[in-house]
Write a sequence for this structure.
């Protein structure tokens, strides 16, 4: 910023020469900007040659052909045992019906199917549509309109998206952008209850899809870029009354840390770490929202979910480990008590939220079958963690990394690269992965038939200059200038088949843009995903070979689902409608001459407006 | 061939003239507030054949490089940058382009800051003093190249994410008070 004194002293005598020098400097700087920044790669994923499909030995939940929650089952596999559509016949897939949502923001939700009815939640204003699958063309049965306050759009960091609903006990549960959890009668569309759980004037919003466990609706807040105090809340599914709330930071009693809390690593043990690992009072505005995915293991009776980035991005403003942000909690769903915690990115420096999906699997690790969770994190590693204890069994790079050298499996600590540490007031270049991470919210799928995890992800790096932030409740609390660009190789995204046992890439499909949609795996050995430029794709589960694709009206950031229709046929559903953080440049009509637009994402997405336009539409496919 | 020596005095004179206002600094001048606010219009439709079009509002701060520079600093300090970035937008709309949902006139921008707007723009009344809101409004117009080059900021001390405001070509405003026939 130019200081007043400086501008006042700029007299006319030397004005011309100053202006000339400045002009030359500026041309020089703009020129430099276009040159690819030195990335100084530290880690690249390892590719596995000659992968032999490893049939999964564990148990999956029985499949009734419906799709009642975004991740399909409690283990979050997004795997369907339906196999009518297979690698041999998928090329014949045809459009069966469509439905326009009438909205132009990012459509991230998964279409649910329960009792021959399809349910879709739109981005703000978060309408819930029920479509009758028993009738030709699936006409609308009813629409429920929660009418959230339009002002809530001003506290949604990364487009006004909604990641969908969950069905349980005759009700559809979901969250509105203005922090209300609603329960809607699945048959009549009438509101059963509505509970306000957060406040936009504290910067809070809600975008995540609830998980319902033993009659409790689990929901969390968003707002790591608004200085919120993150939490997970359990509401009674029948009444909407709050049963418990577990904060991410603060004193142990707020975090629901008690005698059952036994983290695996010593750095996570101690009293009130949620206060002591922060400067005084910073934990009150320290972020750590819970806007991602929740998984549940009924045998251990534990839920698993990640916590978001600490705020502000300017890390010098919050010395300390910033517990319990950017990590994962295991909790008892009945009481909310914490059982263990592990921090993926202690004192996060790069907006590496820990909220990504956790796939609960029983995998052979060093000759032993271990109950694990598999978690592809924003920091670039796929973690395999013992889900009973929180011990990290492996952490392998699945995208290019410059910001860390690996994870020390003895201490569990991420090994940061010192020269890539952002410093307030200094531009640090070539940071990979960038702020949305090697992978953002877009959920992976697992197939027991191939033993592979299918990861939709980003392939981006960034430059970052941290700045002193200024906290004003209800406004962004970030403190950083960011510009993102494609990682070496010149493309922005990948769809990767990953071996979680060996921790290696089996195959990967590069894409021009970040792959911002969810993945769906099926027993027909076909895997589905969508691209930001609007292609809905079916690939071979073993090889990644493209088998079929369909160009939808807008970019795809939704979650594909599949179900058995009332006619006994298998259908595949996807919401198209570009947006989200990656697609904000189109959905929000941003101006990419400013590379810092959309928190720096616009710089990497300059070309997207030439490839797609906004507009929400449901597409459902089947074999003829 | 041009003869620089002959042109130099002319250039200097021109610079002097142009510099007069840009370097002016008025302390404690009343902000051009209330009478402008009463004439703010956020529709381009004026019913009745004899209706008198509203005169464009003025903002004395947008003639002063100092005030615009102050506006730039406040734009960051009040976290406008968090939503609108450096004019390209994000959570909020872009400010460096031709589209002005609630009008491009200085008074429109001042009113938008103070009153807020329904789809997410907060109301900064009682948070930002009026004269600062006018300074921010002046800076916001500079992002779209709507201020004279000599007044607009021509460099940043931070990471260079866009061309300077002073080298942004004027984006002819469209929207409520602009020219509807030029809509993209």
């Amino acid at each position: 910023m130019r200081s007043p004194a400086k501008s006042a002293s700029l007299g006319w005598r030397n004005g011309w020469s100053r202006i000339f020098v400045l002009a030359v400097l500026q041309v020089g700087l703009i020129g430099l900007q276009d040159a690819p920044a030195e990335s100084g790669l530290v880690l690249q994923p390892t590719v596995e040659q000659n992968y032999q499909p490893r049939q999964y030995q564990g148990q999956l939940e029985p499949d009734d052909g419906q799709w009642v929650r975004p991740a399909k089952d409690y283990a979050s596999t997004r795997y369907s045992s339906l196999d009518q559509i297979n690698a041999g016949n998928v090329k014949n897939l045809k459009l069966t019906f469509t439905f326009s949502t009438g909205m132009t923001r990012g459509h991230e939700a998964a279409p649910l199917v329960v009792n021959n009815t399809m349910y879709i939640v739109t981005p703000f204003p978060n309408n819930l549509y029920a479509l009758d699958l028993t009738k030709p063309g699936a006409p609308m049965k009813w629409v429920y309109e929660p009418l959230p306050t339009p002002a809530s759009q001003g506290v949604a960091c990364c487009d006004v998206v909604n990641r969908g609903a969950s069905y349980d006990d005759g009700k559809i549960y979901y969250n509105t952008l203005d922090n209300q959890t609603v329960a809607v009668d699945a048959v009549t569309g009438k509101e059963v209850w509505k509970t306000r759980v957060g406040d936009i004037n504290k910067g809070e919003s809600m975008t995540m899809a609830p998980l319902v466990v033993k009659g409790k609706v689990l929901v969390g807040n968003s707002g790591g870029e608004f200085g919120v105090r993150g939490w997970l809340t359990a509401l009674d599914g029948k009444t909407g009354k709050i049963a418990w709330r577990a904060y991410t930071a603060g004193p142990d009693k707020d975090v629901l840390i008690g005698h059952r809390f036994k983290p695996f690593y010593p750095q996570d043990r101690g009293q009130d770490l949620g206060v002591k690992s922060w400067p005084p009072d910073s934990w009150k505005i320290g972020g750590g929202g819970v806007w991602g995915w929740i998984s549940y293991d009924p045998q251990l009776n534990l839920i698993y979910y990640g916590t978001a980035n600490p705020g502000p991005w300017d890390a010098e403003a919050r010395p300390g480990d910033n517990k319990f942000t950017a990590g994962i909690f295991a909790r008892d769903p009945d009481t909310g008590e914490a059982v263990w915690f592990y921090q993926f990115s202690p004192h996060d420096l790069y907006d590496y939220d820990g909220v990504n999906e956790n796939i609960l699997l029983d995998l052979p690790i060093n000759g032993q079958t271990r109950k694990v969770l598999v978690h592809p994190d924003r920091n670039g590693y796929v973690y395999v963690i013992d889900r009973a204890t929180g011990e990290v069994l492996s952490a392998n790079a699945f995208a290019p990394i410059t910001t860390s050298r690996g994870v020390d499996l003895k201490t569990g600590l991420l090994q940061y690269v010192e020269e890539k540490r952002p410093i307030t007031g200094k531009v640090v270049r070539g940071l990979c992965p960038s702020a949305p991470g090697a992978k953002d919210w877009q959920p992976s799928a697992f197939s027991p038939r191939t033993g592979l995890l299918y990861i939709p992800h980003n392939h981006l790096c960034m430059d970052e200059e941290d700045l002193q932030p200024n906290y004003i409740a209800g406004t962004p609390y970030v403190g950083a200038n960011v510009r993102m660009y494609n990682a070496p190789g010149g493309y922005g995204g990948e769809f990767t088949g990953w071996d979680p046992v060996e921790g290696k890439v089996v195959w990967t499909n590069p894409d021009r843009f970040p792959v911002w949609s969810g993945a769906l795996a099926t027993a027909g050995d076909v895997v589905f995903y969508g691209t930001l430029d609007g292609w809905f794709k079916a690939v071979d589960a073993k090889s990644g070979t493209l088998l079929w694709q369909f160009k939808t009206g807008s970019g795809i950031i939704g979650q594909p689902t599949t179900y058995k229709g009332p006619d006994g046929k298998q259908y595949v559903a996807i919401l198209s409608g570009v947006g989200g953080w990656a697609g904000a440049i189109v959905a929000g009509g941003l101006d990419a001459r400013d590379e810092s637009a959309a928190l720096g994402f616009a710089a990497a997405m300059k070309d997207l407006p030439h490839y797609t336009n906004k507009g929400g539409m449901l597409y459902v496919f089947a074999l003829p | 061939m041009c003869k620089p020596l002959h042109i130099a005095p002319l250039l200097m004179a021109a610079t002097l003239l142009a510099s007069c206002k840009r370097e002016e600094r008025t302390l404690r001048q009343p902000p051009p507030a209330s009478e402008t606010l009463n004439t703010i219009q956020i529709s381009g439709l004026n019913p009745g054949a004899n209706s008198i079009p509203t005169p464009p509002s003025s903002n004395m701060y947008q003639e002063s490089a100092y005030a615009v520079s102050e506006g730039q600093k406040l734009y960051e300090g009040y976290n406008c940058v968090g939503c609108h970035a450096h004019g390209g937008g994000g959570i909020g709309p872009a400010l460096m382009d031709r589209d002005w949902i609630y009008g491009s006139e200085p008074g429109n921008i001042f009113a938008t800051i103070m009153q807020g707007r329904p789809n997410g723009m907060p109301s900064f009344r009682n948070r930002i003093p009026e004269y600062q809101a006018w300074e921010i409004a002046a800076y916001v117009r500079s992002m779209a190249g709507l201020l004279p080059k000599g007044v607009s900021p021509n460099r940043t001390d931070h990471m260079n994410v866009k061309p300077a405001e002073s080298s942004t070509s004027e984006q002819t405003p469209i929207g409520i008070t602009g020219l509807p026939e030029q809509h993209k």
About this structure: Chain B touches chain A through 54 residues (CB under 8 Å). Chain B has one domain: 32-38+57-182. The two ends of chain B are 43 Å apart (CA to CA). Residues 178-184 of chain B have pLDDT under 50 and may be disordered.
